[in-house]
Amino acid sequence: MSAATAASSGARARSLACVIASVTLATLNYGITFPLLALILERQGVEKGLIGLSTAASAMAVILSAPLSSRLMLALGPRRLLLGAMLLSAVIYGLLPTFPNFWAWFPLRFILGSCGSVIWVASEAWINTMAPDEKRGRIIAIYATASSAGMALGPLLLLITGSSGFSPFIVAAAFSLVGCVITLLAGRAVPRLEGRPSVHFLRFLLLAPMPYLLNLLFAAVGEAFHTFFAIYAVDHGTTEQRAFMIMTVMSLGGIALQYPLGWLADHMNRRLLFLLCVLVSIGGFLLVPFAIGAEYLGLALFFFCGGIFAMLYSFGVIMLGERFTGSDLATASAVFTLMWGIGTLTGPVIAGAAMDHLGSSGLIWTAVALLLIYLPIPVVSWIRSLRRQPVAVEE
């Protein structure tokens, strides 16, 4: 009997609400600290390339700590692991302003990135275990919406706290501690992931390549777009301010459209909806050169396509929950996070090289090419889903 089946509906709802709220606070902190640390280093006269290298310490931590995350989760359980990661994050937020040094921040950011890896792995396994399949799309959509909202609100909080002194770090540490309290309020309806995974860590890539490659490409395309879009926009005759506005509108689309798309995922063929989202994402990137200069129509297009593209991540999490349970789900979630880390590191590198050879349009062609390479996988998955559907027989 699964945890989702054993728990009462009220206890399950409280458990899911608590873990989603905790992760929202964690993403809110990342929305605060990433721009905050970059601003502080720039004021110290650190070169932008080195600032990027400092940021990469967090992504490298995600890659290196993902295999350990699954083992810790099987040993401690999702709740204890989540509590430990948030408590350690609160400590790191207190140490960052105490040692405001470029070199001192490398190990601190590495630890913070490792905590983030643990938080994503534990929360995704927790949510997928507690979510009943008939509501999985909507629950994952709420989770993704809350996480996106937290990341988007982070920079806005910096307007209140400022970027100097201890204030923003104290706020981040406080959010982590509040997240710990909320996690404790989940009650007894907490998943227990016991036993050993059925196969070796990296063998999971062969068992479910579709969600893993999806998360890698989603992270690669998304990170490349956020890194270089402002440069692309200026090269195509618009202003930095409009570029930032477009990126904000795309984020808002990701927040607004998650639940409607999650509802559709629970009420229609999920593989067909997934294929349509990939196709719309490809079409959206192809239309960027035409939409970037269009006023309100262009913003509407970015809003819609940004929301569709953001749903690709949710589909990856949904597919993990469909495919794995128990200890396998713990390890599968860790591999999923590993692929995200690889994507965030490689995406900007690939797009940057393409832009060096093809001009700024290389950014768009990189996004389109990566999604086109992936396209046959959802096509085949949709065709197979049609074959599995029962055929009605007339009496």
UniProtKB/TrEMBL annotation:
Membrane topology: Multi-pass membrane protein
UniProt main location, coarse: membrane
Domain of life of the organism encoding this protein: Bacteria
Keywords noted in UniProt: Cell membrane, Membrane, Transmembrane, Transmembrane helix, Transport
Places the protein is found: Cell membrane
Major facilitator superfamily (MFS) profile domain residues: 15-384
GO cellular component: plasma membrane
GO MF term list: transmembrane transporter activity
Positions of transmembrane segments: 16-38, 50-69, 81-99, 105-127, 139-160, 166-191, 244-265, 272-292, 298-320, 332-351, 363-383
Protein name (database record): ABC transporter permease
Organism lineage: Bacteria, Pseudomonadati, Pseudomonadota, Alphaproteobacteria, Rhodospirillales
